[in-house]
Amino acid sequence: MISISKQALLGFLMIMSLQVFSQSVGTNNNTNTQQSSKEKIQAQKVAFISQDLQLTPSVAEKFWPLYNEFNSKKDEYAKTKRELEKNARKNGIDQLTDKQAQELIDAELNFEQNVLDLKKEYVEKYKAVIGINKTVKFFQSEKKFNNYLLKQLRGTNKTGNAQ
Question: Which residue, among 14, 69, 22, 75, has the nearest Cα to 45 in the 3D structure?
Fold first, then answer.
């Protein structure tokens, strides 16, 4: 059974995460639905990891902005790569010149290297806020949440309904 302090922490984290991840609402209903789903998933992730790491509200207030900053930077790296991939698919992968194919390979390698460098930078920041042991546990918790999410999505895809 969850104690009152854990319930309060989870409530606080859910509210905080919704504020942190909320963005302006688009005009397209599909965009609104996607954004709402993304916000719900992010809120669940924050609550899941915060509980798993047993983050206090004061530590969570310091940790989650760092995590969001990391993800924003990673998303910027991915955006460049996605644009090249989108253009390649539009024109047909089989129709790429050697130069275009090399650009795609370079974009993938650059993305992976940039993400690795970013992780190294943010591991140091995470350790300063949550300590080394919780930093290790954070990566494990993130993987556990992603596996949980994949299982949920697989269940939705098989039945057409969320389980």
Answer: 14
Query: In this structure, what are the phi and psi dihedrals at residue 132, rounded to the nearest 5 degrees?
Result: -70, -40
How far apart CA 77 and CA 11 sit, in angstroms, is 33
Cβ atoms of residues 139 and 79 within 8 Å: no
Instruction: Return the residue matching tokens 């995460």.
Output: 17
86 pLDDT above the threshold of 90: no
H helical segments located in the chain:
4-21, 29-53, 57-91, 98-130, 132-159
CB 100 within 8 A of CB 88: yes
- Cα of first residue to Cα of last residue in the chain, in angstroms, is 23
pLDDT of the residue at 26? 42
| CB neighbours of residue 21 within 10 Å | 19
Q: What's the predicted TM-score (pTM) here?
A: 0.70
10 Å CB burial of residue 90 (0-12, 13-18, 19+) is exposed
Question: In 38-71, which positions are buried (b, 16+ CB within 10 angstroms) versus exposed (e)?
Answer: ebeebbbbbbbbbebbebeeebbeebbeebeebe
**Token pair of 63 as six digits:** 């940790």
What span, in angstroms and rounded, lies between the C-alpha atoms of 78 and 76?
Answer: 5
